[in-house]
Amino acid sequence: RLSCVRNNVWLACCGVVSAGLAVLSSFGLLLFCGVPFVVTVANAPFLILGVGVDDMFIMISSWEQSSRKKGKSDVKSLLAETYSEAALSVTITTLTDVLAFFIGTWTTFPSVRSFCLYTGTAFVFCYVYTMTFFGAVLVLNHKREQGNRHWLTCMRVGVSKAEAENSCLYNACCIGSCSGQSSEQQGEHPMSVFFKKYYGPFVTNKWIKLLVVLLYGAYLGGSVYGCTQIREGIDLRNLANDDSYVIPYYDDDEKYFSTYGPRVMVIITESVDYWNETVRHVIESCAQNLE
């Protein structure tokens, strides 16, 4: 936003902080409970940040839509309207994510189990902070705007005859517009106007809808084909704890023995009389034939 009052820089920063608090809270709780931390868990904060920022956008959009409705100037009414619009979407998103990752804790791989447990718990905390911490930040930001205060200094922004005669840069940064006029209530966001007046009618055209269906069919077919061609593979050293003896073993095995190809093992599945010299010769002859 170009307005120094309607600019929501700090609101966006607090949305990112909310996701960061969720990561700290979940990691701290699970580490306190003794859940092992493996290297794959370090990727979890990026997932939490993505979901947390998405929830932030939903909350801000619902707040702005509620504030444009008539008779919704009261803070309590605005917040109630915002939660009634945004909470359902945020809740469903969180429930599906938490369910998906907690199902992943049933795996037998300890590394994957730790990753899913850390990430699923972080999603729960992300939801809690979005519904509490970020809601409070929305109210504080609304009160700042109602008081016509600057987004950075929180000082009151006023227009006097002397101020209106200052440079365009000063007026834009300290008053709210280049013309020296005080910041007024922000109208509908340009992006919302674009989707409502241009993108929506374009997508709902019958030929465009047919094209979208065809493109989705091609995408689905390509995805199914790709699933049949995918090759499984995993670095086993990433499935062990950081201080496990398995890690240097795999490092040395890859460094010194990777050129010899895979190991071949022969297992005798029945009882054998190893004390019998004839049996031992048969086993040695079998090994030589395999070599």
Automatic annotation (TrEMBL):
Q: Does the keyword Transmembrane helix apply?
A: yes
Domain of life per record: Eukaryota
The terms describing its cellular component in GO are: membrane
- Location in or out of the cell: Membrane
Where's the SSD domain?
Answer: 1-140
Family that this chain belongs to? Belongs to the patched family.
What protein name applies here?
PTHD3 protein
Species annotation: Grallaria varia (variegated antpitta)
- What is this organism's lineage? Eukaryota, Metazoa, Chordata, Craniata, Vertebrata
